[in-house]
Amino acid sequence: MSAWGWAAAALLPPLALVIAAGWRGSLGQRFAAYQLAGSIGTILLVFLSFATDQPSLTDLALTLVLLTLPGTLLFAVFLERWL
After folding, report:
1. CB pairs under 8 A, 24+ apart, for 41-48?
2. What is the reported pTM?
3. How far is CA 62 from CA 2, 8, 42, 49, 81, in A?
4. Which of 12, 46, 47, 80 could form a disulfide with 8 if both were Cys (CB 3.0 to 4.6 A apart)?
5. Per-residue pLDDT of the chain (83 residues; tens, 9 = 90+)
């Protein structure tokens, strides 16, 4: 496994912790976990694109970056309005 693969594998435990915080935390913790999961997921996809030599994963990471902010804003509006 290349160094990129090891770097991607090193990001899996933090991603698991963020998912656990999003699953069991309070509303504020869930909101922060959603933001952090988007960031970790993006970096993970970039590392995997270099590890597997698939440039299409970089496009997926760019799409995730572009959709994380509007998704977070919609989640904040939902929290403010209905909870």
Report:
1. 41/15, 42/68, 43/11, 44/8, 44/11, 44/12, 44/15, 47/4, 47/5, 47/7, 47/8, 47/11, 48/4, 48/8
2. 0.84
3. 23, 17, 8, 12, 30
4. 47
5. 889 999 999 999 999 999 999 999 888 888 899 899 999 999 999 999 999 999 888 999 999 999 998 988 898 898 888 87
